[in-house]
Amino acid sequence: MKTPRFTINTLKFKITFCLIFTLSIFMVSFRILPSDVPKISLDGYKVEDGFELKVISSEPFLKAPVSMDFDNKGRMWVVEMIGYMPNLEGIGEEVPNGRITILEDWNKDGVTDHSKVFLDKLVLPRGLAHVYGGLLYVDGPKLWFVEIKNDKPGKKTLVDPVYAEGGNVEHSSNGLMMNIDNWIYNANYNFRYQLKNGKWIKEPTSYRGQWGITKDNFGRLYYNNNSTQLQGDYVLPNKAIRNRYFKPSTAENQRLTNNRVFPIQQTSVNRGYQKGVLDEKGLLKDVTAACGPLVYRGGAFPASYNQNAFVCVPEVNLIKRNILTFKNTQTTATQAIEGKEFLTSTDEGFRPVNLFNGPDGAIYVVDMHRGIIQHKAYISQYLTEQLAAKKLDTLQNAGRILKITSKAVKTHPIPDLTKASTKELVALLSHSNGWIRDRSQQILIQKKDLIVVKELINLTKNSNEFATAIHALYVLEGLNALSFTTLSDVVNQSKQPETIAHALGLLERFASMPNVAKMKTTCTQLLAQNNEVIDLYLSMSLNAWLKLSEATFLPILTEIDKKYAAQKIYQEAIVSSLEGREENYLNAMNPNALLRSSLTVALNNRQKKEMNPIFVKEKNTVDNRTKGLQLYRTICATCHGADGKGIQDLAPPLKGSEYIDGSMRRLAAIILHGVSGPIQVNGKLYQLNNEMPALINNKEISDQDITDIIRFTQNAFAKEGKGISVDDVKKMRERKPDGNGIFNEKQLLETDFEK
What we know:
The protein is of the alpha+beta class. It contains 21 helices and 28 strands.
C-alpha cells in the first residue's frame, strides 16, 4: 500500500524536529567542550604548608564571579558581575549582561564540566542566597526572590526595591547571609530580612562593613572594609540596639586586629604614590581593598584552624589568615604566622573577592580574575596609568573558583540534602561542617514536620563545640514549636553559656504576667553562676519583662551594673534593655557613673528626637565620590571627555592640566564663574570659540556638589590629589572676576585665590 504524501512529510518534519531538538539540548548541556577549557597554571601560587589549592572552575564556564552559594545538592551557583568596570573609564556598567550560573561536575572528578545560566540580563548582580527553597538575588538596586523549578526560574517576588541603591557597587549592599537566628544579614546595609508566614519582613539592624559578611558558630557577625581587614561584633546581632535613642560603641563594629599585610611582590595599588602606603621595597604595608571575610566552620581542616578568620586582599593577590580568640565578652584576632600569608600569588590577575565554606568542608575562593577591581569613582590617575602600562585593563573575561583543602584531613562527601529524611536532617545538626548544620536547620524549618519536635528539644540540652543546641533551638523557633517551659528548661539545665544566651533572647516573646515569678527565679539562679557571658545576655534580654514589672527586674539590672561597673559593654547592654525607662532607673536605682552617663545620653537624644541612624536611614545614599563622578559625566564630560582627555576644538584636557594639579580654590572659581579662551594647558594654546559655562547661578548645583566634582577630578586626573572643603567653595562664590563675570587666563594666573 502506498504511503500518503502527508504521512511522509509529517514523518520528515518529526525527524527534523527531533534532530534539531536533540542538537539544541546537546548544545545547551555540552556547549563548552573540554578542549575549549584553558589549562590554568598555579605555579605562581603558594598556599600554607599542609594545604592544597586547585582550580575547579574557570573561563569559559564563568566570567567575573563575585559571589556564590551552594544548593541543597551541593552544586555551585555563581554570580557573574560582567559589567563591572568594563574599561578604565567605567563606561557601560549599566548594560544588563550580568548573570547567575549553575556549575556542575557531571563526571565527578571535582572540576566543572558543565554550566547553565539560571538568570541573565542582570545589571551588576552582587549577591545570592539559597533560602526558603528558592533563590534570593540582586539585580541593579532591587532584591528579588525567585522560586526554582527544575533549575529554571519560577515566580518572582520583589523583596526590596531599594536594596542596593547608592550608585557605586563598592558602596552598595551585598552579602545575603542566613544566620543561625533565621535572619538574613548583609554587608553595607542597615536592614535584615526574613520570610515569615508567606510575607517578607525587613527590619533595621546595625550597619556592617563593605563587601562580604560571615559568622562564627555562636552567630556573631564579622565583616570589613577596604582599609580595615577584619571587624566584628562582640555580641549577637540586634541585642545591643533595643534602645532606639542610644547607639552602642563597644558591643558592635569593633576592629579586631591590625591591618598589616605581607605581599610577596610589588603590585599596582590605588594610592601607591602617597607616603607610607608602600615600604622601602615597594610592597604594600596595610590593606587598601580588604573584602570577603570568612570564619572557617568546615570541619575538614586541622582543629587549630576551626573558626579562624580568612580575609581576601585582592590588591596584592593574597588571602590572610587570622586566629580568633574568644574571651567572654570580647573577640580578638591575630596574624596566624607573623610575616607570612595563608595564600599568595605572583599572578596580578588573581583577585580573590569572596570566600565560602563548602558542603565538603573545603574553602572556596571566588577569584574575579581581572585587571581592574577599583571603581572609576575611586580609581586614581596613578593606578589608571599603571594598569594601562601593564595592559591589565584588557583582562576582562576571565574568572576562577579555587578550592582549598587540607592534606591531613579528608573532606566530607558532598551530600544531596534533597534526599535526606527529616530524621537524617536532625542528625546533621551535629555535623562538624557548619554549612551542613546551617542548611539542615533551614530545610527542617521548610519541611514543617513536627514529628521531630521532641528530638529537637532533647538536642537543646546538648553541649558541643558545633552549637548543635542552638541550631535545634532555632529549628523549633522556625516551626513555631517553642514554649516558655522548653526555653526555661534550656536556661536552667544547659551547661553551655552560649546556648543560654540564645534561649534568654527567645524567652522574651513569652513575657507575660503569669511567667514573671518564674522568670525572676531564673534570673536569680543565673546571676549566682557568675558567668560573664550569661550576665551580659541576661542584661540585654529583660526589655519585655521590664514592661510587665519594673519592680521585679530593675534590681536584676542593678546587680549586673554593680558587678561590671567599669565595663562599658555591660552598661550598653543595660541601656539597650532600658529603652523608655531610663529616667525611672536613674531616679530609683542609683546607677554607677558610667551607666548614668550612657542613660543621660539616651535621654538627651530622646528629647532631641535623635535616633540611632539605623532607625532613620531608609536606603543607602550615593557617596560623595560617586556623586562627583555622576555630576562630572552629566556636566563636564560632554566637553572634557569621560576620560578627561578633552575634545578637539571644544575643551582642553584635564589630565596633565595645571588647573587640575594646581590650586583647588582656583579650580572651584573656574567651575563657579566659568572661563573664556584662549587658554594654555600643559604648554599648548587652545583657541576656544565657546566659553566654559558658569555654574554659580544653577540652583540645582550646591556647594557640596561642586566639592564632590573637584574631589572626583582630583582623584581621577590629578598627579597627586589635594583636598577641598565646602567652605572653600563658598568663599569662591564671592571671588567674582572683573568685567563680564567670567574668568580669562590672565585673571586666573594673576589672582591669589588663597587669600
